[in-house]
Design brief:
Blueprint: H1 3-20, H2 26-39, E1 44-46, E2 50-54, E3 57-62, E4 66-68, E5 72-74
Antiparallel strand pairs: 1-4, 2-3, 4-5
Length: 75
């Protein structure tokens, strides 16, 4: 599913890890990943609020770390 986008996302993740390594605060990694995803030609949004509905009624809000192309989310 979403083969092309997934390939670009993996590439962005590897690029950020290769550059920054481990042991960095999560928010810094997230910021770098957003920049790398945008450089890869993807639309990426940090901390996007997504309403969760059950039987047409809002039952909560999901806030993933990153949403890519308005269809792929990650924590």
């Amino acid at each position: 599913m979403y083969e092309e986008e997934s390939y670009k996302i993996r590439g962005a993740c590897f690029a950020v890890y290769d550059s920054l390594g481990g042991g960095i605060k999560e928010k810094i990694i997230e910021n770098a990943l957003i920049k790398e995803l945008i450089n890869a030609g993807l639309r990426a949004s940090p901390q996007k609020r997504i309403d969760v509905k059950y039987k047409r009624e809002n039952v909560g809000t999901y806030i993933p770390d990153v949403v890519v192309e308005d269809k792929i989310s990650a924590n």
